[in-house]
Backbone:
């Protein structure tokens, strides 16, 4: 009788693991939010010669985020006048490209390691978050001299990454089976070969 009571522990733990896998597979999606981003002016010529603006602080994504699958979706309304990108902050030449008080840098898009978006993005970007330090940059298209504000709409979705989900699922199933085996042991009948 005591063994059957003790068998509840691995079964409960296994069920919790399986529930976590189901919740992680369903994930969470946020509502859309908006933010205004100034459009840097750019003289006529080429988009690649336009100086870009940058936010003042790093967005630091910690290492435990590798256990999650987080995706950010961004769209902006002035796609013909500006673009937005996400860059690796650890690869920025800070002596050359540090933003001033207005957020403008002395660098162009080619000076950055762009991981999502950038001059080739039309009206939006999709970004899968990975651990590390990032910053947002924005640039005007060639010939943009208006000082409009780009209205950026963003949302994100988060769930558990595939590898941790598989590990947790296997552990959950094994614990449930172990609990059932403890409560109701299978007995194998030995056959005599006489």
Residues:
């Amino acid at each position: 009788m005591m063994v059957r009571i003790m068998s509840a522990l691995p079964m409960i733990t296994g069920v919790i693991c399986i529930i976590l896998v189901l919740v992680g597979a369903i994930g969470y999606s946020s509502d859309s939010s908006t933010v205004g981003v100034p459009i840097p002016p750019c003289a006529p010529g080429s988009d690649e010669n336009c100086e870009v603006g940058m936010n003042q602080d790093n967005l630091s994504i910690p290492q435990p985020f590798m256990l999650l699958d987080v995706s950010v979706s961004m769209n902006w309304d002035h796609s013909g006048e500006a673009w937005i990108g996400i860059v690796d902050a650890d690869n920025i030449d800070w002596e050359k490209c540090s933003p001033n008080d207005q957020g403008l840098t002395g660098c162009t898009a080619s000076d950055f390691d762009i991981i999502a978006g950038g001059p080739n993005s039309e009206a939006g970007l999709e970004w899968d978050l990975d651990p590390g330090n990032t910053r947002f940059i924005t640039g005007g298209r060639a010939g943009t001299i208006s000082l409009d504000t780009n209205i950026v709409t963003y949302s994100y979705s988060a769930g558990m990454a595939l590898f941790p989900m598989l590990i947790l699922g296997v552990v959950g199933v094994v614990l449930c089976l172990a609990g059932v085996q403890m409560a109701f042991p299978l007995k194998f009948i030995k056959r005599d070969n006489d």
